[in-house]
Design a protein that fits this description.
Oligomer: heterodimer
Mean pLDDT of chain A: 82
Radius of gyration of chain B: 29 Å
Structural class of chain A: alpha/beta
Number of helices of chain A: 5
Number of strands of chain A: 9
Radius of gyration of chain A: 25 Å
Strand order of the largest sheet of chain A: 6-5-9-8
Largest interface: A-B, 27 and 26 residues
Number of helices of chain B: 12
Mean pLDDT of chain B: 63
Structural class of chain B: mainly alpha
Distance between the termini of chain B: 55 Å
Helix content of chain A: 25-40%
């Protein structure tokens, strides 16, 4: 679906895509056909780890009354829409998860990762005119579509969602709104916590209290 | 469309707008000022909006969305302003002829509430990043539920058979094909991945329990 395809033109293999060959992606029915498909917007862009792709999508039109249904269709396709209504850019969960792991491990920034994906898509910036923030390509900014603000905003949402998910807010009946201040932080295992990593009677150590705390915490 | 969209911002329209204004020195109501001033406060707690402010900003953002979706971008802003002034306050034009200082103060307050902010707002002022983020706050619960749904069985909750052969027990799924939701039996999974050997496969050890990676 998002796999890059190549076409033999008689001299060499040139890049093409499955959307150019006529593939249309149907949302909402888990890959099956829809009785009343609604065509998506032109120039719909999907950012994946494999690169940035232009795809043709069809929404499921079985429930036209629900405006948020299209957003749910994106999410069940493992696509995170960049905007709330009428999105034209989505990011796959794999894209966001990969950068999340990358920035936690190597402290890499989003700008470099974004440009890496663009380099991977088209290194010489010949065929696909998406994005470039280079100084020598400023003239392209007027005619190309820069998606970096969308990536930036979406990753903020993704990081917040992941912290909410790991804090167990999805299983709480109060939901996200019931999160207490500091409820998303991880408790430090090296700090002294009475009843957890401190010996009984640590209050009676007197002036040696700090020594007892530090010594016992180092052993843990 | 871009020409008609930027037409209200031309000098001629703006001077016409300025000539229609009364010669009082009342400052214009600025709606976006309060939202922006929060961004310049230091610290995370200070920049976080309170609940009432969040509701107000969400309501403003939904109104902006309505204007964008229903009226369209090609409709000129001068039309909207004329429509609002003529239909909104009919006594404002009649009572300005009284020229009494007490009534003028009441007129100023009433017109400042009824008329929309000046049409000099540009496109980027209407939907800022902060407006979009605040608008997203209502969708956190539903988005989190969708993420958790994808971690579980999801649409295969009521289907226990293989998606391909319809006979075997569907216990495995592939994250890289079928959007990670289709359950396959072991034979179909191996058959389908003869040429896709690096796909990530997960197995459900028991029904209604989360998936685990197959190493």
């Amino acid at each position: 679906m998002l796999t890059p395809a190549q076409k033999w033109n008689g001299k060499f293999f040139e890049k093409t895509s499955l959307s150019n060959l006529g593939l249309r992606i149907q949302l909402g029915h888990d890959g099956a056909s829809c009785p009343c498909p609604c065509p998506g917007p032109q120039g719909f862009m999907v950012f994946d780890v494999s690169g940035a792709h232009y795809v043709n999508i069809d929404y499921c039109g079985c429930r036209p009354d629900d405006p948020m249904d299209r957003r749910t269709q994106h999410l069940r396709h493992r696509w995170f829409p960049a905007t709330l209504i009428r999105p034209q850019t989505v990011f796959t969960f794999d894209f966001l998860n990969t950068f999340h792991e990358l920035t936690l491990q190597s402290k890499g920034n989003l700008y470099d990762f974004y440009l890496t994906i663009l380099r991977k898509t088209d290194n010489a910036n010949i065929t696909i005119k998406i994005v470039s923030l280079f100084a020598y390509e400023q003239h392209l900014l007027t005619c190309t579509q820069n998606r970096f603000p969308e990536v930036h905003r979406t990753f903020r949402l993704w990081r917040n969602l992941m912290s909410l998910k790991r804090a167990g807010r999805g299983q709480d009946p109060l939901g996200v709104g019931g999160t207490e201040p500091g409820g998303l932080t991880v408790e430090c295992p090296a700090c002294p916590h009475p009843g957890k990593n401190l010996p009984a009677g640590w209050e009676n150590a007197g002036a040696l209290r700090c020594v007892v705390c530090l010594d016992f915490c180092e052993q843990c | 469309m871009p020409i008609s969209f930027f037409l209200p911002l031309t000098a001629g329209n703006f001077t016409a707008y300025m000539s229609k204004r009364t010669n009082d020195n009342t400052p214009e109501p600025r709606v976006e000022k309060r939202i922006r001033s929060n961004a310049h406060r230091p610290g995370f707690r200070a920049s976080r909006l309170r609940d009432a402010e969040v509701e107000q900003v969400v309501a403003e953002a939904s109104q902006i969305r309505k204007i964008n979706t229903h009226q369209g971008r090609t409709r000129s802003k001068t039309k909207k302003r004329v429509h609002a002034t003529t239909g909104g306050e009919p006594n404002a034009s009649t009572s300005t002829t009284d020229a009494s200082p007490q009534s003028s103060t009441t007129i100023q307050t009433s017109t400042s509430k009824a008329t929309p902010p000046p049409p000099a707002k540009r496109k980027r002022d209407r939907a800022t990043t902060q407006t979009k983020l605040v608008e997203w706050l209502d969708l956190r619960d539903s988005t989190l539920d969708e993420l958790l749904r994808l971690d579980g069985l999801g649409p295969a909750l009521e289907v226990s058979k293989c998606w391909s052969c319809l006979t075997g027990e569907g216990t495995h799924r592939c994250l890289d094909c079928g959007h990670g939701t289709r359950l396959l039996c072991v034979g179909c999974m191996v058959t389908k991945h003869c040429e896709l050997e690096l796909h990530r496969v997960e197995v459900s050890m028991q029904r209604n329990i989360l998936f685990y990676f197959v190493c």
